[in-house]
Amino acid sequence: LKEENASLRSKINKLQIFSETQADKMRKLERKLEENKIKEEKEAQDLEAMVQHVEQNLQLMTKRAVKAENNATKLKQENALLQVQLKNYKTENEALRSGQAASLAAVKQNADLALQNLLAIITSSRSSIKQLVSGAESLQLVADLLGSIDRITEVPENGQ
């Protein structure tokens, strides 16, 4: 009976040691789980902040692109109007050349002025079109960035 008691006490001691070891492992795992939860929350907050920042940038770029498109449309309309005026001035110039030499200088001055205005508007419209293309490229970059956000951060499949 004493041997059996000693054997059972030995088993109880081993089980107590094993139980304490398991409890320590459990506490460590709980701490690690809590650390992982805090880390995931911080990553989620960081990701949310980044998404908000990207959305703000996207809104700003969209506004700039719309403004550039409107400006380009306006400049194209002005360009077309000036081309019509230039054509009229050239026609008038031809008419004056054929019969009215005295007014030729005034017509030439008007045509030169119209040409200068036309060239200035063409230069301005080219700049606006370049800005529009740049804005579109920036929007494409942001769209690509948003499309690849899921590749930036890894979220464990089992939620840990």
Automatic annotation (TrEMBL):
Looking at the UniProt entry, the stretches that span the membrane are: none
What are the GO BP annotations of this UniProt entry?
positive regulation of cilium assembly; positive regulation of protein localization to cilium; regulation of cytokinesis
Give the residues annotated as coiled coil: 19-92
Say if the entry is tagged with keyword Methyltransferase. no
Sorted UniProt keywords: Coiled coil
Offer a single GO CC term for the protein: centrosome
InterPro entries per the record?
Answer: ENTR1
Q: Superkingdom of this entry's organism?
A: Eukaryota
Q: What PANTHER family does the database record attribute to this sequence? A: ENDOSOME-ASSOCIATED TRAFFICKING REGULATOR 1, ENDOSOME-ASSOCIATED-TRAFFICKING REGULATOR 1
Q: Which family does it belong to?
A: Belongs to the ENTR1 family.
- Give the protein name, as stated in the record: Endosome-associated-trafficking regulator 1
